[in-house]
Amino acid sequence: MDDVLLFWQGDLDDALRQTAQAMAEHLQNWNADDLLKTPVDDVIARLIDMGSVRCPTLLIDQAWMPEPAEVHENFEQFGRRYTRRMTRLTLVVPYDGEKIIFTLRANRYTANPPRVLQLRDGEVRLALDGSPGDAAQVKSALDQQIAKLEEHLTWSRTQIDQHNQRIEAEVPTLVTKRREEQLAVRNLQAEIGFPIRRRPDADTYGVPMRRRAVRPEPAPRGGRAPFRPEPAMTDDDYQAALRVLRNQRNALERTPSVAAKLKEEEIRDLLLVGLNAQFEGAVGGELFNGEGKTDILIRVDDRNIFIGECKVWSGPKTMDDALGQLFGYLVWRDTKAAILLFIRNKDVTAVIEKAVQKIEEHPNHKRTGPQRGDEQIDFTMHAQDDPDREIHLALIPFALRTRSDESRKHNS
């Protein structure tokens, strides 16, 4: 029968190297504005997906057999040509992964690789021709073919897994280095002093947040401001602010008699006191200011780079309101945010699960990060109508008693 020889047409090692090289070249050729505009995690995920390889996995439990067919085989005997009819039994085995892997030779191989009837996208077809014998014999013969395929795929998978692990380990460093190179060019351009016509999709820079005196900047010559990327809160400062909020939360939970007497606005003011004790703005004045009834904002150059929404849980709609207000702000790239959820219900765990579900169902949700028990759950959202402008959102639950809880406690 006509068949296809597998795992013999090319070298798997060479193909993996070419895949990694193509990924690296894509990063180097990535338009600088697009590279700096696209969130880092999205760049890394895109490159890892481009540089990784999916080794095929045979889906044996989905295998199926079409109707038996009659085939004709030509053969020669004693100088004469004959044709004979044979029964062909075919087994279709679906697979998940990249078809090309079936054609490439791994570092470990045999001189007698598998042969199959057909190799198609998403399926490989095995065949038995001739007198099929009983069912047990047919099943055994097909199982042997499958086992031989699995053996060669195992050898390929070992190489591919090592390749994918290298890609995942190296890409974040490559991306960081390339972005730093591009930002250095932008900063050099700004320092030269000539006016720069800015694009609307400018880059971001980290806002230093530490207790120090702020030095006034000299006015630029010619009345035109030099090139400056958009402000963004650094990850270290974001985590420091969240630690302050969690510590304040823990203190309130450890003193339930005090928390029960406080209104939401009063709790918000205590949080502001803790934040202002830790941070000093880099442009003068206090960096943390409450605006509106329950908002906590960090503002730089009239732009909100940190938004804290304080909400009292009164049902799933609470999260709809919180997210609606959050995205109602003019948020900028790499904005950091937190929802401080005041829970005065008994079943705190159930409330947190419902809150997480509402956030994940929101159309602006991109990824859910790690969950630190009931301490904090992290999310990556995107700004309205712009998936490249990311918002790092932390959900910090507050388990607080109510006045009625405290009254019952004292009465008992």
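The record above closes out task 2.4. Task 2.5 opens with a second protein, given below.
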Amino acid sequence: MYFTDRGIEELQARRGDEEVSLAWLAERLSEFVDLNPDFEIPVERLATWLARLDDEDE
């Protein structure tokens, strides 16, 4: 188990039954980066990965 798995598990346990829009998620990610600029690159990579999940080229 990676250290980050605990955060993912907490997210699933606390908010797993909620439905949110991708616009809401994008706003939260932007807010997080504003508060934690050191995480800009990992958040950018995650957002790009999520945006391109259905791309057949990758």
